[in-house]
Write a structure and sequence with these properties.
Blueprint: E1 18-23, H1 27-31, H2 38-54, E2 59-64, H3 66-69, H4 74-79, E3 86-88, H5 97-106, E4 110-115, H6 118-131, E5 135-139, H7 148-161, E6 164-166, H8 168-176, H9 182-195, H10 198-210
Parallel strand pairs: 1-2, 1-4, 2-3, 4-5, 5-6
Helix pairs in contact: 2-8, 2-9, 6-7, 9-10
Length: 217
């Protein structure tokens, strides 16, 4: 029996094999986002994008009919100020060769997707890409849906076919893997402090303690 690529050390994310696709984080989708607090989705997807940049993971920004649905959120555009999001008419991102050609040319097989909405614009490309041989990971806390049920059912559907649900902090931890990798550790710590919620607060406190001289009296 062939070993599953999703178990063992090979089942973990590696920066050199990863590529990120961020789908439709636009005003229209946010207006009917009810599965999560919208500020959390903004925070989490921005943290994910910043981490991807630190690890030199290619990141594709894409929108759907942006002239009506709105430009991609400023927080994401600010991470990649020189990148013009790919504007689609396809509901399913994976049917647009402007997106898939970039992924294919990268040669990377660990596909990380986040977007709005989970049941449509995330599930459709994730399921198709899985069938084309990619190892697909969906960042569930950087994605959201019209209802909690819609989000949950979409995640269940994707899990049934072999797609891996993951949160954004787990993604960046797997990319880092070892805090001795100092070329990324410092920058990543700043992202966690800014976007990691309580984990970021705790990390800032730990750094404060490490930098506080111990009294000898």
């Amino acid at each position: 029996m062939e070993k599953s690529p999703k178990i063992g050390l090979e089942g973990l994310l590696r920066p050199e094999d990863s590529i990120v696709v961020l789908i439709d984080h636009q005003p229209y989708q946010f207006t009917n986002l009810n599965s999560h607090e919208p500020t959390m989705i903004v925070n989490n997807v921005t943290g994910l994008a910043k981490a991807a940049k630190i690890f030199n993971v290619p990141t594709i920004l894409t929108t759907v009919i942006e002239e009506r649905g709105g430009n991609i959120i400023k927080q994401l555009q600010d991470v990649y100020p020189d990148q013009k999001p790919i504007n689609r008419t396809f509901i399913n991102t994976w049917e647009d060769p402007k997106v898939t050609d970039i992924v294919k040319e990268s040669g990377r097989k660990q596909l990380i997707i986040a977007g709005l909405w989970t049941e449509i614009c995330v599930a459709m490309p994730a399921i198709q890409a899985l069938g084309e041989g990619y190892d697909v990971f969906v960042v569930t806390d950087a994605s959201g849906s019209t209802t909690s049920e819609a989000h949950d059912m979409a995640v269940r559907r994707m899990v049934q076919v072999g797609i891996v649900p993951i949160n954004w902090l787990a993604v960046i931890a797997e990319w880092q893997r070892d805090w001795a990798r100092m070329e990324t550790a410092g920058q990543l710590s700043e992202v966690i402090i800014e976007h990691g919620g309580a984990s970021g607060v705790a990390l800032a406190w730990e750094l404060q303690l490490l930098n506080t001289p111990v009294s000898t009296n």
